[in-house]
């Protein structure tokens, strides 16, 4: 169950990062509220997952899901550049996440 909470926390991190971009420096109230709710939910789910999972594993997976997810949203939704080097960097993050998961006994 902890892994489900952790993945949920990672997805909410993507939501709040995207909403922060859409808030235009906190000048747009709707995206700012979505960002705040996403942050609270993300941190709460991360905290619940950390009841069982090791700190290093949980935090690494959480930030990795957020980083790679925000990268994908940036390309797919915001039209950001998808250069080979950026894709390689994201792939290396995913490799690190898989390795971290495989090295955790829970």
From TrEMBL:
Gene Ontology biological process: xenobiotic detoxification by transmembrane export across the plasma membrane
GO molecular function, one term: transmembrane transporter activity
Protein topology in the membrane: Multi-pass membrane protein
Subcellular location(s) per record: Cell membrane
Residues passing through the membrane, by range: 27-47, 59-79, 85-103
GO cellular component, one term: plasma membrane
InterPro entries with a match to the protein in the record: EmrE-like, Small_drug/metabolite_transptr, Small_multidrug_res
Keywords: Cell membrane, Membrane, Transmembrane, Transmembrane helix, Transport
Protein family (similarity comment): Belongs to the drug/metabolite transporter (DMT) superfamily. Small multidrug resistance (SMR) (TC 2.A.7.1) family. Gdx/SugE subfamily.
Official protein name in the record: Guanidinium exporter
Species of origin: Methylobacterium currus
Phylogenetic lineage: Bacteria, Pseudomonadati, Pseudomonadota, Alphaproteobacteria, Hyphomicrobiales
């Amino acid at each position: 169950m902890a892994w489900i909470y952790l993945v949920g926390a990672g997805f909410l991190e993507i939501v709040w990062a995207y909403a922060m971009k859409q808030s235009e420096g906190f000048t747009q109230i709707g995206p700012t509220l979505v960002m705040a709710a996403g942050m609270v939910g993300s941190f709460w789910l991360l905290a619940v997952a950390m009841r069982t999972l090791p700190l290093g594993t949980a935090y690494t997976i959480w930030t990795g899901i957020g980083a790679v997810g925000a990268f994908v949203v940036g390309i797919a939704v915001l039209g950001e550049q998808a250069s080979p080097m950026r894709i390689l960097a994201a792939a290396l993050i995913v490799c690190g996440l898989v390795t971290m998961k495989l090295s955790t006994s829970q």
